Automatic annotation (TrEMBL):
Residues 1-10 have a biased composition (Polar residues). The chain crosses the membrane at residues 30-54. Residues 11-21 have a biased composition (Basic and acidic residues). This is WG repeat-containing protein. It comes from Anoxynatronum sibiricum. The keyword Amino-acid biosynthesis does not apply. Keywords: Membrane, Transmembrane, Transmembrane helix. PANTHER family: DUF3298 DOMAIN-CONTAINING PROTEIN (PTHR37841:SF1), GLR2918 PROTEIN (PTHR37841). Pfam families: WG_beta_rep. Residues 1-21, 80-110 are annotated as: Disordered.
Length: 279
């Protein structure tokens, strides 16, 4: 009996000792869990701060002001550093060239072929970058046009010539003004009269017109006195100058004006819509 009682007492002691040891370990586990929670919270806060900083930096980069670009579209006028380029309702078209209402809203299938070089201005001088933003032609010109058919009009000290995509002056600075190349010809002015040169700089149509526009579908609007007509690449009249205004052909149709009233003609010069009849 004594032996059995002694065994029961030893088991009770072991049980009490076991409970005592387990209870003693509880505070240690709780402390470890608190520390782990604090570390996790610190990691989350750090990640949140980094996300906010990077997000703000990305927004700042996206809203950074892009480089100033010269814009030159079918009107072919060159943009200079003295006047910041904008995109008007009729892009860079001289007032006397602007139609009162465009024939259609689609881009012309005969618009000049553009080279992917963009004009930029640094300290008032113009050059060109590629689409990656790399400087290709060092800024050194007073004004430039966009590239068209591999050449761009440039102006320096009041004279106009043409450069290629490497910045080489392939047509000398010999003209007062110059428009973009289209169908292998570019309009240039000498003594305030307009003619056309080819891509070698040879005068193909002597300067004898009071105003011109670019070639489209083998014809170019030209003005003689106060009347507009259409010439071919040899400089011959194919539609006699009888209009008060005329614009390049698109898909075989051109908008013209007769004493301020709008009409349309085909490439033979016949009326599609005669404003003299429909008033």
């Amino acid at each position: 009996m004594a032996t059995e009682e002694q065994q029961n007492q030893d088991q009770t002691k072991e049980t009490k000792d076991g409970k005592f040891d387990m209870n003693k370990q509880v505070p240690k586990k709780a402390a470890i869990m608190v520390i782990a929670g604090v570390v996790l919270l610190a990691v989350l806060i750090t990640a949140l701060v980094l996300w906010v900083v990077v997000g703000r930096q990305g927004v700042s980069d996206q809203t950074a002001e892009p480089p100033q670009l010269a814009m030159e579209l079918p009107g072919n006028e060159m943009s200079s550093a003295a006047e910041a380029p904008t995109l008007p309702e009729q892009p860079n078209v001289p007032e006397e060239h602007q139609p009162s209402e465009a024939p259609n809203d689609e881009a012309s299938a005969n618009a000049p072929v553009r080279t992917e070089l963009l004009p930029v201005s640094i300290a008032g001088e113009w050059g060109f970058i590629n689409l990656m933003g790399d400087m290709v032609i060092t800024p050194r010109f007073d004004a430039v046009s966009l590239f068209s058919e591999g050449l761009a009009a440039v102006q320096l000290q009041g004279k106009t010539g043409y450069v290629n995509e490497f910045g080489e002056l392939v047509i000398p600075l010999a003209f007062e003004e110059g428009l973009a190349f289209q169908e292998g010809l570019a309009a240039v002015s000498l003594d305030r009269r307009w003619g056309f040169v080819d891509q070698r700089g040879q005068m193909v149509i002597e300067p004898r017109f009071d105003d011109v526009y670019y070639f489209s579908q083998g014809m170019a609007p030209a003005r003689q006195g106060d009347r507009w007509g259409y010439i071919n690449p040899r400089g011959d009249w194919v539609v006699e100058p009888e209009f008060s205004r005329a614009f390049p052909f698109e898909r075989g149709i051109a908008q013209v004006q007769w004493n301020g009233r709008d009409g349309y003609i085909n490439m033979a010069g016949d009326w599609i819509w005669d404003p003299r009849i429909h008033q």
